[in-house]
Amino acid sequence: MALVRMSDLLRHAHRERYAVGAYDVVDTAFLEAVLDGAESCQAPVIVSLAESHFEHFDFESLMAAAVDAARRAKVPIAIHLDHGQSLATVERAIRLGCNSVMLDASLSSLEDNIKATREIVHLARSCGVAVEGELGYVPGVEGEAAEKHPGAMQLTSLEDAERYIAETEVDCLAISVGTVHGRLRGMPQLDFERLSAINKALHIPLVIHGGTGLNDAQYRALAANGVAKINYFTGLADAAARSILEEAEDNPSPTYTALVRGVRTAIRTEVNRTCRLFGAAGRAGAALAASRPWREVEHVVVYNLRDDGSGRSEDWAAFAAQGVAALGAIPGVRGVLAGRALQKDARYHHCWLIRFAAAEVLASYRDHPDHVRYADNMFRPAAPDRITIDFELIDVLREDKESKFTPPALTSLSAKT
């Protein structure tokens, strides 16, 4: 499994003075091309899905594709929610598989930004998920999605950044030093003196939004001054658009598939190019070794109902439906399945299969009011005969290829009755 914890990935990049590209994807063509581009130069990569782009795709469907593709990738990957607009979006993103999130409160006052971000950090920490904060404001000028970022530029101040980090404890911080979302008219003038001072004071990975349009020296200087993540989308969108326009010019009656057939190659080439500029090329192996794998946990409960050990089907169905509704809404729960034994003489007749985003959810789930209420008032009184085991899910085939031993398919984290 190539999914890794983004906090580890960025700490490695920050320590080694390179930046990981965070590429916004808007469909599976973008997704596949981003991973192909990163693999072609052996670079770690961040697949990013921005709420400002949700009008262009179904978030749940594209997230499922992103998680599946990341698990099959040959380089370390994190999946990030970019520019989330609400706590509800952050909860949904974690449930669907993001292991890093960002709430965009950059246009709020410093106090309101800190308050909103602290709420996100509290939620995400309980799920093992990294949090990116943003301080200062990066506006949009022109180009893809630039209109999604109205307002004037607000550069990040060192004083505000120190207070923000102390009070929020985010894993990384997006700052404003002169870049813009979309394209800037002319070459941007970046405030490297400001960036250097913030980096020396904070000692955490920094993030640049609006990474398109800089020159080679600016990308290198960003990484040298603590920027470990560079958001990049407009350059990919422009490459895709040029490919479509060139095909249309060469063919007066093109089909849809003909128009888009060069899109993946164009995006792949741009990802490869920028990974090299960011200093990430060739870093996949070292980044993987420095990063903990992102592993989900299967919370398994087998039980018998109190009545006769099996329960009438109509009673059990209603009982299980209540559990699915109550437990499935808890943050960090990726899914809840209820099952019934096929064998009538089985030792246990029913089960829950509850998937957690990460091992950290074990504690937060156990103490969550919705779980406590359901377990104490409904489940435990109705099912005194039960066994609970938590399993960490391991990609055996991948780990077998990367090591000299074959680990068990499921490693038990805990067991209790």
Q: Work out the strand percent.
A: 15-25%
CATH superfamily heading of the largest domain: Aldolase class I
User: Which bin fits the share of residues in helices?
Assistant: 40-55%
- Major sheet attributes: 8 strands, parallel, barrel
- The ordered string of helix (H) and strand (E) elements is HEHEHEHEHEHEHEHEHHHHEHEEHHEHE
Compute the average pLDDT. 89
Name of the top-level CATH class of the largest domain: Alpha Beta
For the record, give the distance between the C-alpha atoms at the N and C termini, rounded to a whole number: 31 Å
- Morphology call: globular
Number of domains as seen in the coordinates: 2
Uncertain runs: 403-408
Strand ordering within the main sheet:
1-2-3-4-5-6-7-8
- Just name the CATH architecture of the largest domain: Alpha-Beta Barrel
Counting helices, strands and paired strands, the structural category is: alpha/beta
The total strand number stands at 13
Protein name: D-tagatose-1,6-bisphosphate aldolase subunit GatY
Pathway: Carbohydrate biosynthesis; Calvin cycle
InterPro entries: Aldolase_TIM, Class_II_FBP_aldolase, Dabb, Dimeric_a/b-barrel, FBA_II
Keywords: Calvin cycle
How does this model look, in words?
This is D-tagatose-1,6-bisphosphate aldolase subunit GatY. Pathway: Carbohydrate biosynthesis; Calvin cycle. Pfam families: Dabb, F_bP_aldolase. Residues 297-391 form the Stress-response A/B barrel domain. InterPro entries: Aldolase_TIM, Class_II_FBP_aldolase, Dabb, Dimeric_a/b-barrel, FBA_II. There is one protein chain. With 417 residues, the chain is α/β, with parallel strands linked by helices. The protein has two domains: 6-290, Aldolase class I (TIM Barrel); 297-416, Alpha-Beta Plaits. It is 44% helix and 19% strand. The chain contains 16 helices and 13 strands. The protein has helices at residues 6-16, 28-40, 59-72, 87-96, 110-125, 158-168, 192-202, 216-224, 234-250, 256-260, 263-277, 284-290, 313-328, 361-367, 369-382, 396-402, and strands at 20-24, 45-50, 77-84, 100-103, 130-135, 172-175, 206-208, 227-232, 297-304, 333-340, 350-356, 385-393, 410-416. Strands 1-2-3-4-5-6-7-8 form an eight-stranded parallel barrel, surrounded by nine helices. Helix 8 links the parallel strand 7 (206-208) and strand 8 (227-232). Helix 13 (313-328) packs antiparallel against helix 15. It is globular.
